[in-house]
UniProtKB/TrEMBL annotation:
Compartments (UniProt record): Cell membrane
Matching InterPro entries: ATPase_NBD (IPR043129), Cell_div_FtsA (IPR020823), FtsA/MreB (IPR050696), SHS2_FtsA (IPR003494)
Entry GO terms, CC: cell division site; cytoplasmic side of plasma membrane
Function: Cell division protein that is involved in the assembly of the Z ring. May serve as a membrane anchor for the Z ring.
Name recorded for this polypeptide: Cell division protein FtsA
């Protein structure tokens, strides 16, 4: 990419849509050129596009603001993919070698080719993430060249509802009038720019607190082990506060200004500092906040337990996202989860300017997406919009952009190129079924966790 070009990303959040343009050097360090956020205006619910027309109009306005500030036209963008249905599933593939067999790059590519054929029931595959190899039942990070009789590969596959990519394409391409350079899984982009390699190696629970959802990613041994999206977030807290006879906009202001993740001991009605706003009891405010946090944290704690890594998270908990800015949240989580908690935003080693953006946890996902951008997003004069790239939101675009560029796996990228045709669907790998067995109300809550609820924003 020439110095005149740039990379661009749009993060589709429940409370706001963020656009960012920047450049990236050969060391994968980002320079931010422009960053703009606009309210989502209820066009996105729980991380999923709900009103395509409204979201598209916001995207057009956002892009216009970025273009005016930068003085250059945007032709294509990378777009975040998320929502309460997005999570990982584990699939395993194995291959027998001869008694004196040695693992080759061809063997590794064959295993991945079979994994690519995986088709989840009633869901869409949005990419193959981290992989762990076992040679004769022993873990091995770099299997090529090692002698063994059996090799097994365990893949983390990102799946979600089939309409996620389709709605993004309608919003960005049809309504927003932009090409889609690629899709990036939001929670994984946040982790890439916020977590250190040491935290991933030691093991940590990475929690991205958004307005509509809370994404939990478990890392251990440098590998993503589990990712799940919990359908509760900061907006649920705001709406609980609004039940105290406030309009939602006032409730949000009170939460940001005075809210704490800690109950007060004495009741004290507080005169509002906001002009023409009603008074609020701070004890009642924080009681409501803690009640909802208890529910969200119960979900997080159970998902950590289900991962099987509860006792192996040496780096504890790392939190980011707009809703993570609630005061005392780190102390609250330390007490509830029994692990140290670190508040995180974009790492300074990956963003070399604009600390006002890099230090904002609400922008972690948007900035993290730039790490995986590889195409010049500037609109060229000779370029015909929506011709050369308009199919990129379908099929292989997610792993080509998000996973392929990181791994540098040329064979894999060639195999997943849409021009290569569809894979043989007759060979289906085995997938690991993970059931959730909880009693009473918690069981019902988890059984509906990955279902979209359009009537509840």
């Amino acid at each position: 990419m020439t110095q005149s070009g740039f990379i661009a990303a749009i993060d589709l959040g429940t409370s706001k849509i963020t656009g960012v343009i920047g450049r990236k050097n050969e060391n994968n360090v980002i320079s931010i050129l422009e960053c703009v956020s606009l309210p989502s205006e209820n066009s996105i619910r729980r991380g999923t596009i709900y009103n395509i027309d409204k979201a598209g109009a916001i995207v057009r306005k956002l892009v216009s603001m970025l273009e005016n500030a930068q003085g250059q036209k945007i032709g294509k963008v990378y777009v975040s993919l998320g929502g309460q249905s997005v999570h990982t599933e584990v699939i395993r593939e194995s291959k027998q070698l001869s008694a004196s067999g040695i693992v080759t790059e061809e063997v590794v590519a064959q295993l991945r080719k079979v994994a690519e054929q995986y088709k989840p029931d009633l869901k869409q595959k949005y990419g193959i993430g981290d992989v762990e190899y076992f040679l004769d039942d022993k873990p091995e990070k770099n299997p090529v060249g090692v002698a063994c009789s059996t090799i097994e590969a365990e893949y983390q596959v990102v799946v979600g509802r089939p309409n996620l990519a389709l709605n993004i394409e309608k919003t960005i391409t049809d309504k927003g009038r932009l090409q889609i350079a690629g899709l990036v899984v939001g929670p994984l982009a946040s982790a890439a720019i916020a977590l250190t390699e040491e935290e991933k190696e030691l093991g940590c629970a990475f929690i991205d607190f958004g307005a509509g959802t809370t994404a939990l990613s478990i890392y251990k041994g440098g590998i993503l082990r589990r990712m799940v999206t919990i359908p509760f977030g900061g907006r649920n807290i705001t709406r609980d506060i609004a039940e105290l006879n406030f309009v939602e906009s006032d409730a949000e202001q009170y939460k940001i200004k005075f809210g704490k993740a800690r109950e007060s001991s004495e009741s004290s009605p507080f005169s509002s500092p906001f002009l023409m706003k009603p008074d609020i009891d701070l004890v009642e405010l924080n009681r409501v906040i803690v009640m909802r946090l208890d529910e969200i944290t119960a979900n997080i704690k159970e998902q950590i337990r289900l991962s099987g890594y509860q006792e192996q998270l040496g780096a504890g908990v790392v939190i980011t996202g707009g809703a993570s800015q609630l005061r005392n949240l780190d102390e609250y989580l330390t007490q509830k989860l029994g692990m140290p908690v670190r508040k995180a935003a974009s790492r300074k080693t990956l963003v070399n300017n604009s600390p006002e953006y890099a230090n904002d946890p609400a922008l972690t996902s948007a900035l993290g997406m730039l790490l995986f951008a590889s195409e010049n997003c500037e609109k060229m004069i000779e370029e015909e919009p929506l011709k050369t790239e308009e199919k990129k939101t379908k099929g292989s675009s997610v792993w080509d952009t998000f996973f392929g560029d990181r791994g540098g796996d040329k064979e894999y990228k060639e195999q997943t190129d849409r021009k290569g045709g569809r894979k043989d669907p007759s060979r289906q790998p085995n997938k690991e079924n993970k059931s959730i067995n909880l009693g009473g109300k918690m069981k019902n809550m988890f059984s509906t966790m990955f279902e979209e609820e359009d009537d509840d924003q």
